Fold:
Amino acid sequence: MEQLFKIFRYTTEEAKALEGQKIEAHVHDFEELIIGAKGKISHFIDFEDETVYAPFVSFVTMGKPHLLRPQVHEGECDLWVIRFRSEFMSEVIFKMYGYFHNRANVTLPGDQCFDRLMALCQMMYDETQRPAPGLIVIKQLFMTLLTIINHERPTNIQSDSANSASETYTHFLHILEENFRRNVKISFYAEKLFMSERNLNIVCQEVMQQSAGEIIETRKLNEAKNLLMNSNKTIAEIGFEIGYNEKAYFSKVFKRKTGYTPTAFRKEMKQLIS
Structure:
């Protein structure tokens, strides 16, 4: 996806038009948030097939295989689909991974909470239709929407198992958030969790299909993207701030993960935002 942000709506008519059409499982190169006010979805994700009735929120992380089909329920369907690149919301994207890592589909209260979510979606959509959309305005509206979702999200959606990988992964994310700027090894996080590096990697693979090292690196680079977009710090300063003592190594890691050098990434983001 070339745009930083995209939002569109599925109506009853569009859901009916999809009936009988073949939809293949696929992966995205962007993050996707679905806000469902009416109707239902059939959602295959995390190797499970689930039917979710509105009102709900569904979050699909970049690179995760899934298949989603909007469907009419009680004669209606009304869904907002928000697609965005992780760098657009780099300040909060890792928190979203934490919120939804063990359950992609979450049912929310259908009263004023959902009225507010739908109103915010409409406001974001209206902003995108302006001749010169204000990405800062969209970003602030989106931040408000995510804050409401987190506030209303049920707190009892953790895995049933008392010593579950999900619970351990959540603790890992908390420790990571406090320490990702430091130049520390995986063993540091494993020791904080009273487990071996091997077991920490097993947990991360089970929950996110990534190693602990990959998750740590992703968190660092999300912060790097945020600083490249929203500060005037040099490449060396940004690398040092997130635990890379050598500019050349930081640039090498950044390009390997994103396909861009830090300088090229900053230039493209400025062109997209301007």
